[in-house]
Give the backbone structure.
Amino acid sequence: MITRASKSAQPYRRRRLFSALLLWVTALGLAMFSGAAISHATEKAFDPTRGERMPVGDGAFEVAGVPRGPVTIYTYRPASASANSPIWVVMPGMRRDAHRHLAFDYYDTWQPLAERYGAILLVPEFTAEKWPGVWSYNFGNVRSQHLQAKRWNETGFYVVEQAFRMAAGSLGSSRRKFSIFGHGAGGQFIQRYVLHAGCGMIDRAVAANPGWFMLPDSQYRYPFGLRGAPIPSSTLARSFACNQTLLLGTADVNYGGLRNDPEARAQGKTRYARGQFYFARARATAARMGTPFKWHLREVPGIGHEASRMAPAGAAILAGRALPDA
């Protein structure tokens, strides 16, 4: 027989049971979050500035002396690597929240590719907390939103170059140039880096599925074109001579969330269309300048805006191999 007292106690017991369950779920979530945050706790930290050598397997070091704060560089060194092994830099995409450790997504995708091709892998962690928004990351932090030029050591481009120098120095590498891949926002970073730096330290570059582009002429104002942030014609000519590949997924035609300014819409409706437009525009600009144009346009059939599925094609290009079957 259930008494009135026992009936009144039931909701209390339920509340206690619910509270206990909530605490357990919260604790489990925290444990899972902590596990995700330290999923690469096996990497060995090293300091190239103190002469420490990059470890075989997973490693990490920091590029210091950057006004926005140190940038962590995650590394992978195959056991088979030699002093002549290529050095690859892989740039993360749009989602860069520190607590999500999105750099690990790219690291996990590219580590087996680096192992396959015998390449040294560097994955910079440009967190959104230190490098917020497109002006800081996608555009390389070369100009303020008022178009004021910044010092080179304030740019993301400097961080990549310094990471390469430090990694190469720690390995006694004979390499004087690195290869670089980026997808989405990372592809935008590379597209702009090639134009701003004239490809001086790049061996091969692959910009995969960027959302839109800085056009290599002065029809539009920066950041859509060069007006207001001029790049010398000599630098532009060197950029056209770069071994850069624009890598497009033929199914990257979902235009939801794409930048929708009139200048961006003029490049096309989808990422795939904008990539075709940009390549043709760059080739025409190089022809008007009378300078060699050594860029390449490659397509990956049936793949949309998917960084992990674009990676094998990107790695093959960095390695100078034929594109794998999709």
About this structure: Residues 4-37 form the longest helix (34 residues).
